[in-house]
Design brief:
Elements: H1 17-72, H2 78-82, H3 95-126, H4 131-143, H5 148-160, E1 168-173, E2 178-183, H6 189-213, H7 217-225, H8 230-258, H9 262-267, H10 285-288, H11 290-295, H12 304-312, H13 318-349
Antiparallel strand pairs: 1-2
Helix pairs in contact: 1-13, 3-6, 3-8, 3-12, 5-6, 6-8, 7-8, 8-13, 12-13
């Protein structure tokens, strides 16, 4: 018998190591390219979301300002800025609110900024990380989020009424005139300033701490290595370097204080008065009548937000236009004060060298 020969099965040539590695590399490149494209799509979507959020906010703000400007047209005049409030909308002015806001914010800054910066310096430069300091830090962070009306109630209890202290009046001779001091303070500028200082302190402290932390430790070490004391290091090296960041916190705190209404309503600030604090009738009287100037913190007051609040609640519809004019004045004051503070911050930031 003849044996049938079986043809051999085709055998594929074995792949070399180079070819197998090349195929794996192509797969990796394709996977990486698809992943990179997906990331670019997500990045583009996120960019558009941020763009819409930014310009949406700008458009909303522009619409609000344009609406206020339209309502205030014909009402925002030089006479409006230098006149006293009146029951007739056409004769109403905002002078007591402008002057009261100026004195209130000035005293608030004088009270809150040194205390806030000093507290931040102690907590960052001197205190040790004990349970007490951690507890203080936690409370400062919590106080920054407390509603402003709570500070108003605290100010009314602690400063306006002084926990029920019996009313007493004192006449103090200053040599240049007499100062009439009343305890409790009542509904005066100093009560409002102390209340807003409590409101602003947590923001100033937290911002100042962050600014101090941003100063490199090497700057402190170099100063101490050259023989400077700890206080000299803080005063001459750390504080100038941290000042721009501190200014940012002060700007935010004072901007919030200028627009606050709820704490002032709680302490009973006036919405309608026909005089300025201290009864100063002109800028020159602040220099010629120092007794009136000394009386400013202990006199009744109103602010621009309080006047706006009062005009909005008036029955006559014309007062809506007066309130719109006052809102524009408040916005301009905010822009000017913030612009000035930012200019000062940038001036000091240019001197920072590290």
């Amino acid at each position: 018998m003849s044996r049938r020969s079986i043809p051999p099965l085709p055998v594929e040539p074995p792949q070399t190591t180079f070819e197998s590695s090349l195929g794996g590399t192509k797969l990796i490149e394709e996977s990486f390219d698809s992943e990179l494209a997906r990331r670019h799509r997500y990045g583009m979507i996120f960019e558009w979301v941020c763009w819409l959020a930014t310009w949406g906010s700008v458009i909303i703000l522009g619409v609000l300002i344009a609406t206020m400007a339209w309502q205030a047209m014909g009402w925002l005049t030089p006479k409006f800025l230098v006149s006293m409030p009146r029951r007739n909308p056409a004769d109403a002015g905002i002078l007591p609110g402008i002057v009261g806001t100026f004195w209130l914010i000035l005293l608030t800054a004088v009270l809150s900024v040194p205390l806030g910066v000093g507290a931040a310096i102690y907590l960052e430069e001197y205190s040790k990380p004990t349970l007490l300091t951690k507890f203080i830090q936690l409370n400062i962070a919590n106080l920054a989020g407390v509603p402003s009306i709570v500070y108003g109630i605290l100010g009314f209890t602690a400063f306006v009424r002084m926990f029920g202290l019996a009313k007493s009046e004192y006449l103090i001779n200053l040599g240049i005139g007499s100062l009439q001091l009343t305890l409790p303070f009542g509904r005066t500028v100093i009560s409002g300033a102390l209340t807003l200082a409590l409101l602003s302190l947590p923001v100033v402290i937290i911002a100042s701490q962050e600014a101090l932390r941003s100063v490199p430790p090497s700057l402190r070490h170099a100063s101490l290595a050259l023989g400077a004391t700890k206080w000299q290091t803080i005063w001459h090296q750390v504080l100038p370097s941290a000042l721009p960041g501190m200014m940012t916190g002060v700007i935010l705190a004072m901007s919030r204080a200028i627009g606050e209404t709820a704490p002032l309503v709680a302490i009973g600030a006036a919405t309608y008065i026909t005089f300025t604090p201290g009864r100063l009738n002109s800028v020159s009287e602040a220099f010629t009548r120092p007794d009136k100037l000394a009386q400013v913190p202990f006199d009744s007051f109103t602010t621009i937000p309080m006047q706006i609040y009062g005009w909005i609640n008036e029955a006559k519809p014309e007062f809506q236009h007066v309130a719109a004019a006052a809102i524009l004045v408040l916005l301009v004051i905010l822009l000017i004060s913030n612009g000035l503070a930012i200019f000062i911050r940038q001036h000091f930031q240019k001197k920072v060298r590290w």
